[in-house]
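Project standup — Tuesday

K.O.: blocked on the structure for the chain from last sprint. Re-posting the sequence here as requested.
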Amino acid sequence: MNNTRLHPTKIELSDLSAAIESGWDLYRLIPLPSIIYASVAALIGFILLFSIGALGFSPMSLPFAGGFMLIAPAMLTGFFQLAESALTDSKPTVSTPFIAFFRTPLQTWMIAIFCAFMFLIWITDAGVLYSFIIGGAHLPYELPWILKADEKIATFWFWGSLMGSVLAFTIFCVSAFSVPILFEGRGNLVQAVHASVRAVFKNLFTAILWGLILSLSVLIAILFLPLLLVVLPVMAYASFALYRTVYPHIQSESEDSAS
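H.V.: unblocked you, prediction finished:
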């Protein structure tokens, strides 16, 4: 494995819409395995939201939902395997993403563990901020509270989002392109992370916009969980498509001569 070909290309805004369109097309091609695999995340999200609401800390739902983007890389291998199988006409089954998930390379798990660590930092900071701003008021999870948030809740969300955005950007730089690079075996951990950071900073504006699109779409989907069964696979496939735009495959001389 080497990174001699990992030179990021410049992407435009049109590439983002093209990636989302590609993600939607793939989802429509393999809806059942996509939904079944995404249902694992939906179940975890339901348990978290139910627990938070039962404890009366419903405003913490937004930090938890936003933090999901930090641990999402752990699931990406399964979606990437579905995408690759569909693109190569391998007819993926419901078991395909789960098999890929359990065969996730150790280096990818190292990124996932780092993301989980950052998630714990985010939630810990949000919890401290929550205690200072909102205190011990019992606020069960009910959808109307999202629309009727008072000044304290709005203040908590604002400062929590500012704190979380720094961590989220760090995670995005590290994982945005490194996970698919490792999935395709195009480099080791250090090479993949370096390539991911280079790609983000070479396309800083479009990369930040892409990160916002990912975060907001998944955030909304988690708060209205049935949407996650569609949004999560579509955006995972879109991320894979965008990665292949930033780091397209280039045939080697031996491949050229063989063809």
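K.O.: great, moving the ticket to review. The chain has one domain: 13-246. Residues 252-259 have pLDDT under 50 and may be disordered.
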